[in-house]
Known about the structure:
By secondary structure, the chain is α/β, with parallel strands linked by helices. It has eleven helices and 13 strands. Helix 7 (170-179) links the parallel strand 5 (152-158) and strand 6 (187-191).
Amino acid sequence: MNTHRHQFPALTNKAYFNYGGQGPMPQAALAAIVAAYEQIQTMGPFGLKTSALVTHESNLTRQAIATELGVTARSIALTENVTAGCNIALWGLNWQPGDRLLLSDCEHPGVIASINEICRRFGVIVDLFPLQATLNTGDPVAIIATHLQPRTRLVVLSHVLWNTGQVLPLAEIAAAIHQYPAAQPIRILVDAAQSVGLLPLNLAELGIDFYAFTGHKWWCGPEGVGGLYIHPDALASLDPTFIGWRSLDYSQPDLPLVDDARRYEVATSAYPLYAGLRAAIATHQAWGNAIDRAAKIVELATYLWEQLQQVSGLKCLNNSAPRSGLVSFQIEAGDRAKLVQSLESQHFYLRTIVDPECIRACTHYFTTTTEIDELVQCLGKMIN
Ligand SMILES: Cc1ncc(COP(=O)(O)O)c(C=O)c1O
């Protein structure tokens, strides 16, 4: 494991627990980005050969992502980040006044802000369902089913909740939504910020329409490359909001939109970053497959959760062992922002969450038990 960890320069001088915020890039990703920039500059940044290279790089990247997610490359649009992908799905539906959007109470502020603007512009009504309270008791599938309404057109929820680390049973949720007799098909948009690179995925089996993710969190790729999966059956219902030369099919004289997910890509991007993301994914694959990586992440999160139970004055949100790599806890007294600040000055990287008020620590498959022991020891001293 140590040799593997040494590939991540950021891990040499700190105990890093912020993978849900941003993953540290492996050396191979940094090198691939530099090499790609150098190649493009050497060839000439604009030219026939470079243009062919960029197309090839984009195809390779969509394919690498699609393989990890268990879908076809044609269903993947390259974006910049999670929020961009969510916005493509949110703004692309043909909203009518009185349409309803069912939203979980655990979504990210950026996504909520976009939904609020859609409501304001189109007269859409948001129904909020209480997901946070189901962390330890309750059934998210039943709660979602009871909140559906005849005019519900879209359900928005995360696969792994960024605040509590809860993993949602997406296939069961999708089945319950599809059974509901709505006026029009109800589409499902999943915020996959905390699931891609963490969970083993086979999106084709989940029955969801849109899955928005990024490469810079659990995949440890460069910031600036993410993607959106669009189920082939949902393509026709989703108009592209931003359109550019990358959205077009140049094999047809009238340049129609491409008939796959590339229609949601717009124009010039930082293409060398694509090579960085592929190199990051390859680094993980060299350690083990997605199932083994997820098992290790959960094993280490469970170890952290168990150790935290021993610290008095601190309470984990989860009453049972975690099923993801996110472990959130509350402190009985004191200022959690100050605690996180003080931890960082001692080289332990964690973050605060506002709702519910807590501190979040993430484990990756290459987190060490020594890092966890040292963090728990430090927390024990600082809290008591
Ligand atoms: C659940 C969730 N959604 C969205 C985001 C925003 O991600 P991005 O900056 O890639 O859009 C985050 C980032 O922390 C997140 O945790």
